[in-house]
Amino acid sequence: MARPSVMFALAGLTLAIAPCAAYAFWRTGAVRGVRRGLRMLAGAKPTPPKANKLPQKVVFGKIEGEARGAAGDVLMHTATAEDPYFWLRDSERKDPAMLAHLEAENDYADQMLKPLKALKDQVFGEFLAHMKETDERVPYPHGGWYYYSRTVKGLAYDIYCRKKTLDGDEVILLDVNKLAEGKKFCDVAELHPSPSHTIMAYSVDFQGYETYDIYFKNPTTGELLDDVLHDTYDSFVWGADESTIYYWTFDEAHRPYKFWRHILGTPQSEDVNLFTEDDNTFYVGSGKTQNSRFIVVESSSTAPTSEAHYIDLKGVSGAEGHKSAPLVLFQERTRGIQFDLEQWGDQWWIVTNKDKAMNSKIMTCPLGNTTFEHWKDWQPYDPKTRIKAITPFKDHIAVSGRKGGYQQMWIIKPAEDTWYQIDWPEELHSITISTNEEFDTDVVRVTYSSMTTPRQTLDFNMTTQDQKLLKEQPVPHYNRTDYASERIYATAVDGTQIPMSLVYNSKIYPDGIHKVGRLPILLYGYGSYGISLDPDFDYRRLSYLDRGVVYVMAHIRGGEDEGREWYEEQGKFLTKKNTFSDFVSCAEYLVSEGYTNTESICINGRSAGGLLIGASLNLRPDLFKCVITAVPFVDVLNTMSDPSIPLTTGEWEEWGNPNIKEYHYYMKEYSPYDNVRATRYPAMFVTAGLWDSRVAYWEPAKWVAKLRDFKTDDNPIILKVDTAAGHFSASDRYRHMRERALETAFVLDQLSSTELLVPGPPLPDLPPEPKESSRYAIVNM
Ligand SMILES: *[C@@H]1O[C@H](CO)[C@@H](O)[C@H](O)[C@H]1NC(C)=O
Ligand SMILES: *[C@@H]1O[C@H](CO)[C@@H](O)[C@H](O)[C@H]1NC(C)=O
Ligand SMILES: *[C@@H]1O[C@H](CO)[C@@H](O)[C@H](O)[C@H]1NC(C)=O
């Protein structure tokens, strides 16, 4: 199991990828008109807030009594740096001076963005026109039921349901709209039926900090059980029956580390702690093997290193049975060796990088003999094939991975020791394994999309290799033949070819986009944690494309887009700067090859992608017209030195630990906050979430304050802090879309691309603006 099997694919509204704690954790003749739009922001001149500067020394290196490094690390002697905006940091989020400053930022943002209201409303209307508001996910079979989620026009959240047969009566399991009543934020992370499908358990967070409570519901009566598990990690796993459930709690730095067994009907205080991950550089996760026989408990660091334990549920039943079912060590941690477990037949199936298999290979071992010496190659390692995860079924094993720069899938027939690769209709594509809860089947459900094909849910018959299209995400007023996507390559400073995927409206550019010279471009990047970008579909891009903007995705190093070495050897630790220079090379290529010029590129990235944006800006502030970045991780040097900040210790293996000399000085050369200088910067729109536990609000707040202090131009820099949200912005889908529409309006205005160049969709009546804006939460807290 690669990750806990998530029962319900959540609504897909959380746009981008985040520093995810472990498994859990954007011419020809037709170009006339592109520059027609008015620069609406040009007239707005309110005074930006100015943050106080207070003396504060930040200490790096050794501090007595603080765990500033992992075991064996040699810390540098104490070094100090001045951080005049340090005072903006308040872990409790209630310092009046800090809140007043954020409020001043929000007031300024409101005034600056006011002229964009009509455009924002227009874009929001386009989003709604391209979105089927009342819609339903394809029901998937699970234990005699069909489970699915659906949305209703006007309602902000999902409704989770099941039915006995595809045309049977609907049972509503959880209506998140009801759960969210009276709440400013509501995130249901997981919802799993018990093994006999008689109890539904769900984890919910009402704040955005990603601390959850787990509730239990009788799906027949709709009543809640007395059991509530407080302050838990989002994921949990049922035992062999409804008597028992397993879950995780956090340490002081919000790292899940204790694994607990809860017997239903007993108080949480009596729960038994089965495992504690004491090494603060390790993340944890748990889930069941696809055949439900084993619970696997994983610890892993991005070193990469794994350890796994398991509970064999065969023959286990009732509270007493679970109490005596032991947690057994599979294989202890060995630095540099990473693995994920599944089980098929009488063997464990292991996806691992063992024996220097950087892109991973598949190994097997007997159920009873699980240590390294018993592991055998299922087939020889192929360095050109990146194996990511396996999903076993009765007679087949589906394998997901990457080859040739794209996501791919293979099907193993274990009885014959053979496998084959599945072909997809478009070269630029995304393919992921969808929700597959049944083991005894010969079909695997997958999700396919491309930059022009909306998300398709397919059943692939592994015996006949037939594909059955169950549903394509309906996108009203969209005709894919009007759009084109392609892949191009920039040359990095070290000569490496860096792919870019792009999409544009081919009605606006009938002769293609090469040599147009001043294309408005939205360049998007991420490039960290080995997370790849894949050419996928997003109807919210249409508001850009139909105004002539070309959307470009940069497949830079730090992701594993071109294989694992793209990340491990060329995009982390002391090679991290490749990530930033690759992105700059992509933008430079677009200019030097005559696609565009430096007045026409907007760059976008969120979270660790915000670090990318911040670092690229310091490298080439003159290359970009405007910037849009959400929850940017920009205070890298300070955050990574302080183990009390969530995610820090676990990421010492990702960026390095700045309490150690070699990492300190390398990181100091790229950390965005530390490299702001007196120069011209582009127009910027920055967003933050007050309750964000992954990138604390103070990182963007300090960065913006420092940029305002240093920059030598009059370009606007706007910070908007959502005080009722965390890392993933608003949980309410309409609020989320309004925020996104505002960001889009900002970019369109900066790129002077506010006018539609092809007929837009007919606009619906807009739902009324919510009366209470989230920001007023500041004063009420
Ligand atoms: C485990 O290995 C030992 C010796 O290497 C062998 O005797 C034993 O039968 C094996 N057990 C299983 C369950 O394969
Ligand atoms: C897959 O194809 C085989 C062979 O035609 C058929 O027997 C089987 O029922 C198909 N599986 C499903 C789930 O439709
Ligand atoms: C999409 O556009 C093509 C080419 O303009 C046209 O032939 C086709 O009928 C359109 N499809 C729909 C569904 O409107």
How would you describe this structure to a colleague?
- It catalyses: Hydrolysis of Pro-|-Xaa >> Ala-|-Xaa in oligopeptides.
- InterPro entries: AB_hydrolase_fold, Pept_S9A_N, Peptidase_S9_cat, Peptidase_S9A, Serine_Peptidase_S9A.
- This is Prolyl endopeptidase.
- The protein has 781 residues and is of the alpha+beta class.
- The protein folds into 3 domains: 420 residues, Alpha/Beta hydrolase fold, catalytic domain (Rossmann fold); 201 residues, Methylamine Dehydrogenase, Chain H, CATH 2.130.10; 84 residues, no CATH class.
- Helices cover 16% and strands 29% of the residues.
- It is built from 13 helices and 38 strands.
- An 8-stranded mixed β-sheet has the order 31-32-34-33-35-36-37-38, sandwiched between helices. Strands 8-9-10-11-12-13-14 form a 7-stranded antiparallel β-sheet.
- Strand 35, helix 8 and strand 36 form a beta-alpha-beta unit.
- Helix 2 packs across helix 12 and helix 7 crosses helix 8.
- The structure holds 2-acetamido-2-deoxy-beta-D-glucopyranose (3 copies).
- One 2-acetamido-2-deoxy-beta-D-glucopyranose binds next to loops.
Q: Which outline best applies? A: globular
| Topology, number of strands | 38
Gap between N and C termini, in Å?
42 Å
Q: For the record, what CATH class of the largest domain applies?
A: Alpha Beta
Helix fraction by DSSP (H/I, runs of at least 4): 10-25%
Provide a count of the helices.
Answer: 13
Structural Rg: 26 Å
Mean of residue pLDDT values: 92
Per the CATH scheme, the topology name of the largest domain is Rossmann fold
GO molecular function: serine-type endopeptidase activity
InterPro entries: AB_hydrolase_fold, Pept_S9A_N, Peptidase_S9_cat, Peptidase_S9A, Serine_Peptidase_S9A
Organism: Vitrella brassicaformis (strain CCMP3155)
Enzyme class: hydrolase
